[in-house]
Amino acid sequence: MTTSRPIRAVAMAGASALLLALAACSEARVPESNSPPAPPPPRWGACPAEVAADAPQLQCGTVQVPLDYADPDGPQIEVEISRLASTKPEQRRGVLLLHPGGPGGSGLALANLLVSKGLPSSVLDSYDLIGMDTRGIGRSAPVSCRFTNDQEYYGNIPPYAPDDATVTTQATLAREVAERCAAGAGDGRLAQLSTANMARDLDQIRAALGERKASYLGYSYGSALGAAYAAMFPDSTDRIVLDSNIGDTHLDRDGLRRYAMGMELAFPDFAKWVAERHEVYGLGRTPEEVRQRYLTLAGQLDKAPVAGVDGAVFRLSTFVALYSPGSYDQAARAWMSLQGTGEAAPEPAPPAEPSAASPHDNTWSVFLAVTCNDVEWPHDDATYRRAVTEDRDRYPLYGAASANINPCAYWQHGPAEPPVRISADGPRNVLIVQNQRDPVTPLRGGELLREKFGERSRLVSVDAGGHGVYILGGNPCARDTVTGYLVDGKLPDDTTCPAA
Fold this sequence. Notes:
Helices cover 40% and strands 13% of the residues. It has 500 residues and is α/β, with parallel strands linked by helices.
């Protein structure tokens, strides 16, 4: 199937940025006394060219960590990190570890992004900002499932399944992808990609930097990694901010199915915005009419794709557009072109070299390895067919996508240890921030983390849509609350920030 690249590219890029069968009483934790010795400090120098081009002020270096923490003296890998150092030593508190989400996202330049969007000077004075490519990503022992351009693979979220036959087709592809990943796992890196191991890497980075404790700011999947870090290393974590929350230390079927809940909660903001501009887009005069237009157009594209865009790609691209109100206009104009009332959809670009590596290979490979290694997934197709049927009715906008089968159903490695269990025992140092209408990590994820951390945590919910709160979302109340915690250490009460 060939697709229109502008619309498909938006969908794929958003999905790539993107994310409990084991006993709940189990716990994956390495006590600090059993941790490997501190690695040598990084030798700071220029960052890789692709980072330095946009962020020349950053320094980069590597930290050596065990490939397998069960064999700390065995093979080692290098984790690439970046630093934006505080220029006020008298105000410097320590280091603030940063994670952009994924799993599969590079975080080497995240400090530069946050600064460009207005990260307060008080935070820059208080911390060295430490970005990173966590293990498996980019410059840090990268992994590959050998995805190529000829695979009809949608990335982190399976395609929408309008019927059982589509689930069966997706199952065949999911099995093939899992087999391809297994075939490329000979060096052992893929099997050692897990949230628990990345949390251990965080603590090794802290130790290599010579810090007794480290603070942390993580977005999206970064909330799961930060939750695991706070759970596994309570004595070496300082101030923890978890932003846009999955709801646990790992992404499981329930977390993935909550994507559909998120779209139902986020879509009304988009529909209202479009309806208020009916004279521009002609997609409906009321939010209800815009919603019906979406359902009608998706059904039409299921039967007759336009310029290579079928119903699955249309739904995915609309879902991704809900990540940011800044994408609303582009999404509305794409709808117009697909229904024939706007500029004609561009002709599909000539196909890329079929056997060439996909540009999403590393991102998709890391997402699958972490997601499938963290927790056991059901292995029978029937479980997914039932879930698709349930969620297609429960969440009509997107339920039959996020409930669909994915390669974790056929993953050949299996979890090496139980998922990290969150404990309410530990320091009171976890601030959870969450938009109320986030399409991919809905409010429920923040509430779940608040329940699991108990009195260790507080929840700040924000009357806003979109994915990403602190600095990325632009809400002044949320910005000031998080900044106050990072700088002054005052954990606020549970609160709701009003709409900006």
